[in-house]
Predict the 3D structure of the following.
Amino acid sequence: MNSPTAQASALPHSTSRAATSQPDPWREASLDRSGVNTLRDQLVAAGLLIPTGVAGLFGRSQQLERVIDALDALITRLGADQQAEVLRFPPAINRADFERSEYMKAFPQLAGTVHSFCGGEHEQQRVLQCLDRAEDWTEYQKPTYVVMTPAACYPVYPVVATRGPLPPEGRVVDVLSWCFRHEPSLDPTRMQLFRMREFVRIGTAAQVLAFRSEWITRAKALIESLLLPNTLDLANDPFFGRGGRIAARSQREQSLKFELLIPVESEEKPTACLSFNYHSDHFGQLWSIQDSDLRVAHTGCVGFGLERMAIALFKHHGFDVGQWPVSVRETLWSSA
Ligand code: ATP
Ligand code: ZN
């Protein structure tokens, strides 16, 4: 997942009838389709992805879900020795936690805040009028205390912080969450709502770095057992603005983020399907998490993009799961 190591947008309120004040990219038809890949169209034609009319917002077929469930279970088996604490959260976080996370400093362009109607009957009449006239009706939509989860590990840090200093061995937490990122795209691997499975490590710098290198090895072996071509590369998060360029450079210089890339949408620009992140003491500082020696804790995480991994499998092994190589099906569906 991405972390704001260096430094309000509204949800779409589109309806079938009304025009809104949202920028055009909300609506798929208005996106520039020139030079568009056909992978998205193929996935839709095969019924794996069900378009909703908003770019990056899809329904999933039973077949796609079956693969995602199998990947999720495979990741569970791979991490069985970690004694991870399993935590599950809804796909939204407390706005106060979101503010404290400094996400708006680093990635304001990706954030999604939940807004709700906060008027009386008079204002409701005005909203209905606007809807009838296909005018902007969102004037009385006000921010709630709910913000969409941007990365699965975000709800974990405030919870761990409330528990006092870490035990000497630190902690490993297993999370899975739907995540929202406002990055509408015709690339089917770049969705606005998708699932991220993570193991989050909280402890000393040495513990977190050892965890990350162990997971790079494990995850690469997992992707190879699925017969997917891949490369590991140093990466940076899409920090916002001019200051963001400095943050991105610094993230690379410190080797904080690695990604496992698989060619999916294009051969030339392979897609990051897994990431291995070291946040140094960034979240430890923000949330006042202490290790067992009462020093600021370090954190890191390994993130698996479940839709990206599943789409990579369909891309490389075909849209008919029954025709996938036997060893791939065994890896996914044997519970050994
Ligand atoms: P990218 O560089 O492609 O924007 P990322 O490096 O920001 O991705 P992370 O923040 O590391 O992604 O998230 C962990 C994993 O979540 C990624 O490796 C990817 O598999 C998945 N992921 C991230 N963004 C998306 C998205 N928009 N749609 C689907 N999956 C995503
Ligand atoms: Zn994370």
